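Friendly challenge for the regulars: who can give me the structure tokens for this chain first? No prize, just bragging rights.
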Amino acid sequence: MSRANGKEAIRLWFEYLKRAAGASNLKINDKYYDGWGDYKNTKFEKWWKENCEKLLPKSKVAIAKNATQKKEFIQLSIPITLTPTDAANQVRDFLISHYKEIGHIPKPKRNYRLTEGAEIKVSALRAYLHTYDAHQQLISTKLKDKVTAKELLAEVRRFYMARSEKWKHTKRRVEGLPPALAGDIVYDKTTNSVKTRGSDIGAERAIRRYLAIANNLINAAAKGDFPSKNYYIN
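First reply, four minutes later:
Bragging rights claimed.
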């Protein structure tokens, strides 16, 4: 699977859902997520290992190569003289009759899918998530719920610059500060702070947009529609 619809995209869905679960003003669509287990208290890698095949199966319907005797399977022999329509109708009628005979009530498993047709840029969604987390962190250290764009921009810049500084002499590749949030800035690794030497009007406008998009994504995750087609804000 590609980054746009594979593990990294699901990781972002998972992380946005956890933020939604932690937001007091949102109600999670628990019915939709009934198969996700204890995602609220589980780290992604552990959750992925336990749930990826169950929730996001790679296998497709196929003719069994070898007959097996397992209770969870019914293996049918379909004459190839039947048209696909006739075969489908006969299979349907057979299963209705057979399920009634054995007293079986099927419980379909939900297959989870990212919003069909939605554009997913993994690095951008991560940047929005970092912005949301930085905003929450700043709120937790203030006595009021108001965080200025200037404060939020400084914190997001510090996060990216500190991470780049940490890994710059290694082979590990980390995403740099998004261009929209860049400016004439200097990072002081001694104090772990960022100072700006120019106008930040454009960057402050961008950080407000990043936060709004992050909240849209969190709302979408809560509903079970991630990332949704309309999460982006120009």
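The radius of gyration is 24 Å. Confidence is low (pLDDT under 50) at residues 59-64. Your move, everyone else.
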